[in-house]
């Protein structure tokens, strides 16, 4: 059940003990809840400090939206897919499988040498010609010059906390799972519009300039919405292309493998929704939609469990749930405190990178995923618990 945080204009409900939340994050939440456009704020148990708005916050606004409340990786999210394979079908040495995945899907700053032939790749998505035609209407001039790069980055993983995993559930079934977003193009569009919003007169007296909003009906809002929804679609298509490439890898390794329907969800995005009878724009920054019956994915870390969940449709939480475990220390703190040997110890049994280049992703840098799940038991029910055996990171 949520804690109600007092001293705010709009209702602010928190699915974590306020005593355990960084005071800087609480200040950010109060700033958001006191904005005149805000209808309600729901805060997930993985909450931590972000730019302007915390990661792990769901904000419903009347007639306005704050780009910083979406996050700079527009459309970032998860996709998972159950296969017909079982644990005993996997080889004892998984290094060959990991290498095949890394060869098929560029990671980090990498990109494909040529854009992926989506007409022949079984993504299940249509409308590719119209999608790329809409790129030419984006508002940011410097982004328009990088269409070739955006096309070559489609179907690539990126770095940081993004990953591709092969997992086992508690019944020994093999799942594929990945986490990624809209790559450089989404980030550049987000930064462009955040800076644009800061210059608008109605944002001059905000407690944090990063909370600048666009107001419904204005040309700036229409331009942002167009770019935003394009970037969200790019992120969705990026994950679909990667999952198709991953399926091809699995088919080459295990020729008789079959696949169930993909489960996919954004966790940095905007949606037009109705809550408590009000038409609102809802930003989920590090949160998934968890309407009644909605399937979603909540990952842990590269050494912890992840969960496929079904939403319970909590009105108090704006029908939302957490997007993962959430960081308990910054990347800089993690690099200072841990070494590659610590990473190797905490990822025993997982075929993955164990070098200093990814030590900031060490499991100890994240909150306990089981505690996070317990705190939101009224928001989602668990469909499957997954544990990675292969993890690919940039």
UniProtKB/TrEMBL annotation:
The keyword Ligase applies. Keywords: GTP-binding, Ligase, Manganese, Metal-binding, Nucleotide-binding, RNA repair. The keyword Disulfide bond does not apply. Its EC number is 6.5.1.8. Binds 2 manganese ions per subunit. Mn(2+) 1 binds at residues 73, 162. One of its GO terms (molecular function) is GTP binding. SUPFAM superfamilies: Hypothetical protein PH1602. It catalyses: a 3'-end 3'-phospho-ribonucleotide-RNA + a 5'-end dephospho-ribonucleoside-RNA + GTP = a ribonucleotidyl-ribonucleotide-RNA + GMP + diphosphate. It comes from the Bacteria. GMP binds at residues 161-165, 267-268, 299-302, 306, 323-326, 393. GO terms for biological process: DNA repair; RNA processing; RNA repair. Mn(2+) 2 binds at residues 179, 267. It is an enzyme of class 6 (ligase). InterPro entries: RtcB, RtcB-like, RtcB-like_sf. The active site is at residue 323. Pfam families: RtcB (PF01139). Its cofactor is Mn(2+). PANTHER family: RNA-SPLICING LIGASE RTCB. This is 3'-phosphate/5'-hydroxy nucleic acid ligase. It comes from Rhizocola hellebori.
């Amino acid at each position: 059940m949520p804690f109600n945080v007092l001293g705010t204009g709009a209702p602010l409900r928190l699915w974590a003990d306020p005593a355990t939340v960084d005071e800087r994050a609480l200040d950010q939440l109060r700033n958001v809840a006191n904005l005149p456009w805000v209808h309600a704020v729901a805060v997930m148990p993985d909450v931590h400090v972000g730019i302007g708005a915390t990661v792990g916050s769901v904000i419903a606004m009347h007639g306005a939206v704050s780009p910083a409340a979406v996050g700079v990786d527009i459309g970032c999210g998860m996709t998972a897919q159950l296969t017909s394979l079982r644990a005993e079908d996997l080889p004892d040495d998984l290094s060959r499988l990991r290498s095949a995945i890394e060869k098929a899907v560029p990671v980090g700053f990498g990109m494909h040498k040529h854009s992926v032939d989506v007409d022949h790749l079984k993504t299940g998505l249509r409308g590719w010609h119209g999608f790329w035609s809409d790129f030419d209407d984006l508002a940011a001039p410097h982004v328009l010059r990088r269409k070739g790069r955006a096309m070559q980055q489609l179907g690539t993983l990126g770095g940081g906390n993004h990953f591709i995993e092969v997992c086992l559930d508690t019944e020994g079934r093999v799942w594929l799972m990945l986490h990624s977003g809209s790559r450089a193009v989404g980030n550049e569009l987000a930064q462009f519009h955040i800076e644009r919003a800061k210059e608008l007169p109605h944002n001059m007296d905000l407690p944090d300039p990063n909370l600048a909003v666009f107001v419904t009906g204005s040309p700036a809002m229409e331009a942002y919405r167009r770019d935003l929804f394009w970037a969200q679609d790019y992120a969705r298509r990026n994950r679909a292309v990667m999952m198709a490439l991953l399926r091809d890898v699995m088919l080459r390794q295990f020729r008789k493998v079959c696949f169930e329907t993909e489960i996919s969800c954004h966790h940095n995005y905007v949606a037009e929704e109705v809550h408590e009878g009000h038409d609102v724009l809802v930003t989920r920054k590090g949160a998934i939609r968890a309407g009644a019956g909605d399937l979603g994915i909540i990952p842990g870390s590269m050494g912890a469990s992840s969960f496929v969940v079904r939403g319970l449709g909590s009105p108090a939480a704006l029908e939302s749930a957490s997007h993962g475990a959430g960081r308990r220390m910054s990347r800089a703190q993690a690099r200072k405190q841990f070494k590659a040997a610590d990473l190797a110890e905490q990822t025993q049994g997982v075929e993955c990178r164990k070098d200093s280049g990814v030590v900031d992703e060490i499991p100890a840098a994240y909150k306990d995923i089981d505690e996070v799940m317990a705190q939101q038991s009224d928001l989602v029910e668990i469909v499957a618990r997954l544990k990675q055996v292969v993890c690919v990171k940039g």
